[in-house]
Amino acid sequence: MGYQAFDQYASEYDAWFMENGNVLETELRLVAATLENAGRILSIGSGSALFEKLLKDRYSIEVSRCIEPAEGMAAIARKRGFEVEINTAEEADYGTSEFDTVLFNGCPCYMQDLGLALRKAYAALRPGGKVVVIDVPKESPYGTIYNLALALGTWDHPLLEGCKPKDPYPIELVRQAAWRTTADKAATMIDCGFTGLEYQQTLTLDPCYSYTLVEDPMPGHDRGSYVAIIGYKK
Ligand SMILES: C[S@@+](CC[C@H](N)C(=O)[O-])C[C@H]1O[C@@H](n2cnc3c(N)ncnc32)[C@H](O)[C@@H]1O
After folding, report:
1. Ligand 1 pocket test, candidate residues 1, 4, 110, most atoms within 8 A of CB
2. Structural domain count of the chain
3. On the CB side of 73, how many CA atoms lie within 13 Å of its CA?
4. Which of 76, 117, 164, 211 has the most beta carbons within 10 angstroms of its beta carbon?
5. Which residues constitute the domain of residue 177?
6. Three-class SS of residue 28?
7. CATH number of the domain that 193 lies in?
8. Each residue's pLDDT expressed in tens, for the chain with a length of 234 residues
9. Within 6 Å (CB) of ligand 1, which residues are found?
């Protein structure tokens, strides 16, 4: 696991989303839905701030602080007008009782110690604040196909023909990830003190069809390949 590949593949990451506009829009709608009335937001693993920029421009949702370990991703975020602190979720100082929302969008699978990051998020939140943990669940169709590609070491294998996504996520970035189940992440959130867990999901089409249309998020976590778990600090 790590972020080094994101230094090297930062522009590929952004280009992938630009070419997969329906997937980007589908994921953006999920992230935006979790950030209604989010107050002061800290974004961890904010990458190129692709989502933060769209949240600002399209939904008037402002992210107050960004933390991201890969310089290559942060460089793109800075061009988008965001200040970025270079650090990992595990090493960074998030502050104490400063935020209403801490967002982890698409980064938990790259983090070595999700529990450590969630404990920091808990401390950084004001009472009543929330953490939003969004990722591809290990058990979802995307999680399963990513792990098959990982096991095969390539997307170019007969077992993946006819079922892989149209533009598969770069294999170098698949190699860095370790997807967790929703149940694992939820248990870690509860261990770290979060309560009242809520779930929203999207990307429910089979991976080879997800480029064909934009989906709106729906409650639950039983079919989505992109799932948000929201937990509250009492
Ligand atoms: C799939 S990208 C998501 C980026 C952004 N949140 C988005 O949704 O576009 C995953 C990000 O997690 C970052 N990352 C990897 N390891 C990390 C860690 N230990 N702590 C925080 N972020 C990490 C990567 O550098 C990368 O920018």
Report:
1. 110
2. 1
3. 28
4. 117
5. 4-232
6. helix
7. 3.40.50.150
8. 578 899 988 988 988 898 899 999 999 999 999 999 999 999 999 999 999 999 999 999 999 999 999 999 999 999 999 999 999 999 999 999 999 999 999 999 999 999 999 999 999 999 999 999 999 999 999 999 999 999 999 999 999 999 999 999 899 999 999 999 999 999 999 999 999 999 999 999 999 999 999 999 999 999 999 999 999 999
9. 2-3, 6, 44-47, 50-51, 68-70, 73, 88-90, 105-107, 110-111
Q: How many residues does the chain have?
A: 234
How far apart are the C-alpha atoms of 2 and 61, rounded to whole Å?
28
Locate the ligand 1 atom nearest the alpha carbon of residue 88 and give its number: 20
For tokens 């698949």, what's the residue? Answer: 174
How many alpha carbons fall within 13 Å on the CB side of residue 168? 23
C-alpha to C-alpha distances, 89 to 42, 173, 183, nearest whole angstrom: 11, 18, 21
Atom of ligand 1 nearest to the CA of 10: 27
Q: Which amino acid is at 4?
A: Q
